Fold these 2 entries.
Entry 1:
Amino acid sequence: MRIGVLSERTGIPRRMLRYYEETGMLIPARSPNGYREYDEQSVDRALQIRGLLDAGMPTRVVKQVLPCLKQPGAIHVLGATPETLGLLERERDSMSERIETLTRSRDAIARYIDTVRRTRAPEPQEA
Amino acid sequence: MRIGVLSERTGIPRRMLRYYEETGMLIPARSPNGYREYDEQSVDRALQIRGLLDAGMPTRVVKQVLPCLKQPGAIHVLGATPETLGLLERERDSMSERIETLTRSRDAIARYIDTVRRTRAPEPQEA
DNA sequence: CTTGACCTTCACATCAATGTGACGGTTGGA
DNA sequence: TCCAACCGTCACATTGATGTGAAGGTCAAG
């Protein structure tokens, strides 16, 4: 599919899809006329990238991390240098920290919302 | 304590602590001489801010969200407008999404690391 | 009193992630 | 044929989070 379609289907601006290519995170094929041609997989891929970027992961890390996220695996297993492995472990740990921070905060917010709701909305339910 | 001490204790650069004040996330008292004076709570507070920023949350949201993260609660419960409440709910939900994305990716990375380790390190353990 | 280690504000620089728009090519349908 | 709706690259603007440094105040120790 072309960039416009992928953009439609993912909600990600064309500009950003081009940026993802520029940074090496999502590289599409090219039609003879030079248009970017994305395969079906690119949809998930793009959304995954979006999610990671939104979660605060910088593009260069996303780029390093993405190859491990393709299920088929097995092929690229051999291509991992010790440095890459180290980086991945550090990344895994820092992600765990983020997850914990986010979870704690989210739960606190949820409790807060609950409390507010409960302490001043003991009203009957509508229609 | 003064900014240098807080910086030492949290590992957060002075510059950033001033920035947190500028954006209204962490406002210290002032000594008569104009120096910033942080209380003990500020340590946790600063670390929390750091964690949320690292997790990709923008400062204006951190600012909105922080008041709910103070345990004592109860006092500021009344100050929540419906708009704030709505914002908090949206934020809670988007945090949940982030957490899921991060968790999925982290687990995938962890699996990958495991696989690589297992497929080429069936070596005896050292010392 | 001077020095050094703090602190202040201000301001400019940088970097990554985005927005925006100019300018031009391709293509399919009226 | 011509227009509309795509696409391409290039490039500049912006925003948020930071780094860096200048110019000067405070204060305790020597």
Entry 2:
Amino acid sequence: MPESRPYHHGDLRAALLAAAERTLREKGTAALSLRELAREVGVSHAAPGRHFKDKQALLNALALAGYERLAQSLNTADDPALPLEPRLTALVRAYLAFAIDNAALLELMYARKHEPDASEQMAAAVEQTVGSLERVLAEAQQRGEVIDGDPAELNLVTGATLHGVAGFISAGWLTPEAALAGAEGLVHFLLHGLKPR
Amino acid sequence: MPESRPYHHGDLRAALLAAAERTLREKGTAALSLRELAREVGVSHAAPGRHFKDKQALLNALALAGYERLAQSLNTADDPALPLEPRLTALVRAYLAFAIDNAALLELMYARKHEPDASEQMAAAVEQTVGSLERVLAEAQQRGEVIDGDPAELNLVTGATLHGVAGFISAGWLTPEAALAGAEGLVHFLLHGLKPR
DNA sequence: CCTCGAATGTAGGCGTCGCCAACAATGATG
DNA sequence: CATCATTGTTGGCGACGCCTACATTCGAGG
């Protein structure tokens, strides 16, 4: 009699990803279990297996979605009309904001578990993400506002700095407030370095 | 007849830590299991519990040892007689070298699992580690070779950059060779920034 | 409209894990 | 030498990821 729920969920895959992201945000990576997700969504413990061949596949899907969200966030934060320094500051703010309220997800995105297959889709997403920064730097370089050199290399160090700060935030060595407040100073450092002029 | 091994191991705690570090290096964090460690060392599956209250306690001990090793490595790499730039380069090289052949361990060291207790010992070890960099920067600052500003803040951004590069290495976006080769350029960037002079 | 195969969900089981409690051997302290 | 804390063993609990066999539903071709 209890017509309960239909035998088929409708969009279990999406529901699992949504639940996973919520769990990730609220309880952290360690609390992510396929069985628990199945329970939350109301299906049997083996149902997730129909949509993700194993746990890593789900993590990959989460990471992929994360990259897309981050790339979009960076793209909307980028205002090509701005001068270099404020333009970079906006990007840095957007990245740090993402890192702050997606700490566990970001960690997942950076986990090097997907080297073997590489999954092209993932690579493309990463490219899109770092592309935001690279574009800005390359343009500035053409205008002579940034030193010469392989753009990829420049992009690497700036990206590393950002990534490092994000890591410090999730390690708890830097409060989110301090990080966001320091964004301007951070960009200034990126541009001018440690040496006095 | 088989007088096998004595009932008591002698120094089980150290043996476990050693085995754990080996496993960490060879198979990665995911392959670390208390039961497996016990098997490797030749004790029963519950024996580790006598020395580490839970798995996290073992991980903390590993991280602590890692910090001590890293701090020592940085200290021996620091030559106060050198001018600023080569001196920093040596430190960067030492840090990257550690990151390269202790990737999984470094990840553990940066995991923010030990905020609650803080374990003072850990905090002291961290302080010792970052202290190497901070000292160099503070001295250079006094000599006027580095811009003014809160030394802790300067230290933060340089540390973040280093940490970020290390992250890129373990993410596989940067080969160890490329990272070490780029150390000099990295330091130059830290000192001079992206803007042309 | 019906059938039949593919897609999706369920039930149960296997081996492993971390942790716990009860018990056994050892070694240090009086 | 007796006693007791330390250290190791055995066995068990619940949870996990993954697998296989089975059930239900959906959709495409007759």
